[in-house]
CopY family transcriptional repressor
Amino acid sequence: MTRVWEWNRPVTVREVLEDLQKERSIAYTTVMTVLDNLHQKGWVRREAEGRAYRYKAVSTRAAYSAALMNEAWSTSDNPAAALVAFFGMMAPEQRRSLRDALRMAQVDGQAEAKEK
């Protein structure tokens, strides 16, 4: 998924294979199987291109990360404590990013309230 997200465009098995082979030896069939599994799970869409497929991510990496965080938070028996613990694990730069995101969410929320 990392390659598909990084490139942000439809990719072929061959493209992913060639990129991965820069780092390690890997078989074409392995990459093909992984991309097919991702398609079966609904993580990527694919379109036929000749005898091959082009694969494209269904959602962004940010949306996927947000869904994971939401799932983890919503299954907690004490969501407030989970958030406090999560914030405690964050590096200063991550906390700054969180503050920026909260400010943006507030601005978006205020704009929506004014529109109503």
Observations:
- The longest strand covers residues 44-49.
